[in-house]
Design goal:
The protein is 56% helix and 0% strand. It is mainly alpha-helical. The longest helix has 30 residues, at 17-46.
């Protein structure tokens, strides 16, 4: 637990379905806001040379409040409840919190046998003994 416990806990939180879907939504909204900002910035540079005849009407984000959507998803992520964190909180409230955390996140017991240790098999040499 001491060597790998924190890694298991962090991995559990990061791999939680709630976190994964929230991060995907966060990336999508950030990408949209970035595309719209980049498109508008490009228009600001191009329009002085062409007497302002280009607009964002052909943009896929015309009339869409991408910044508002981005802010909303950031707020939703900041208020996200992840069940793994709730489990950790419950463990930490108990007197035997270390034992409870071990039950949740301890490494499964791995067998010490290496390939070929069992009797009667071919081992790792690829040849079977007669």
């Amino acid at each position: 637990m001491r060597d790998h416990g924190i890694g298991h806990i962090v991995g559990t939180i990061l791999d939680a379905p709630e976190n994964s879907s929230a991060i995907n939504e966060f990336k999508e909204r950030a990408r949209e806001a970035g595309f719209k900002a980049g498109y508008n910035e490009c228009l600001n540079y191009v329009n002085p040379f062409f007497n302002g005849k280009f607009t964002d009407e052909k943009s896929g984000f015309h009339g869409v409040d991408t910044e508002g959507r981005y802010v909303a998803v950031v707020n939703a992520y900041n208020n996200l409840s992840i069940s793994a964190i709730d489990d950790i909180d419950k463990c930490l409230e108990a007197e035997d919190y270390v034992d409870r955390l071990r039950l949740l996140y301890d490494d499964p017991e791995e067998e010490e046998e290496t390939a070929g240790d069992a009797k009667g098999d071919a081992g790792t040499s690829g040849t079977k003994e007669d």
